[in-house]
Amino acid sequence: MAFITLDAVKLKKNFDYLNNFFKQEGIDWSVVTKILCGNRQYLSALLEMGISQYSDSRISNLKVIKNIDKNAQTIYIKPPAKGVIGEVIKYADISMNTDFRTIKMLSKEAQKQGVTHKIIIMIDLGELREGVMREDFVDFYSRVFEMKNIEIIGLGTNLSCLYGILPNNDKLIQLSLYKQLVEAKFNVKIPFISGGSSVTIPLVLQGLMPKGVNHFRVGETLFMGTDVYNSTKFEDMENDIFKLYAEIIELYEKPIVPTGELGTNLEGETYSFEEEDYGKTTIRAIIDIGLLDIDMKHLDPTDEAIKYSGATSDMVVLDLGENDKKYKVGDLIEFTMDYMGIVRIMNSKYIEKRIINMENEESPVTA
């Protein structure tokens, strides 16, 4: 049976590193938990680390967090759809917003539930994903400012996720200028400028982050130890917190080239083969995961001798070459994953989720 593991000790190391880093810089931060896909045991392990604020783009995930700890502060980090307004008010202490009509619905629902809902207004700084256009922002703010049971606690932006537009000092300082503008115009205080994410951490390290940016939303760097801006790894952080294990369910020596007329496979692909491979054989292993669970371009076997041959909905075929490691049916193949690989697997109900090194007790990695 295939399963994914989370190493709690390594995750705690990354958390401590980031928590100390942000404290030294005087920055508040929120953990983006969407990589965990609402898995209760993983979220419980995370909550034990002393994190006080959690961000997610799925209401169901925030609901799990609130069920674990009703006092945990939660942020809904995408513009709410009409159908989830009631749940946003119930399970998200804060939401990020870009549409006047949506905030009006949030206001009505907050009055209905007898609460004051906090919002962060997102501004588009060029990524062209969510965000109020800059030229419309002051008018937008003035309209939201009057709404009942709505408290504007911050301004924010998102960069790099859609088109890969990188943050820089000039873009982020604009958020601080908008903060100063509305504070002077409306005689208010805006506590948070939420312009930070995993991709902006290197700007802090280089001293290029405007002082006004005081709130970060961090997921990938926490869970993977990645320097997203430079597409590298931070040396002092762990980058293999998650690992995937899949069991070999068949192993035979077979030809490299299939026989018969070649058509397209279930993904619409047509294969071609090198002339030199005709007549040759290799050791081929089938493992118990498939395209329903994973996208193989996001996975890497830790054994570099193993090559990917192809996949169907429920099975992956691997080329073991001469099988120097003497793999056999029932053995586990270990994989590391990038961010999207982890999310895809975490979202599969067919992959078991395990924790290792929890409270200094390591769960056996066995099928």
Automatic annotation (TrEMBL):
Keywords: Isomerase, Pyridoxal phosphate. GO terms for molecular function: alanine racemase activity; pyridoxal phosphate binding. Signal peptide: none annotated. It holds the Pfam family Ala_racemase_N. One of its GO terms (cellular component) is cytosol. Its cofactor is pyridoxal 5'-phosphate. It comes from the Bacteria. SUPFAM superfamilies: PLP-binding barrel. This is Alanine/ornithine racemase family PLP-dependent enzyme. It comes from Flavobacterium arcticum.
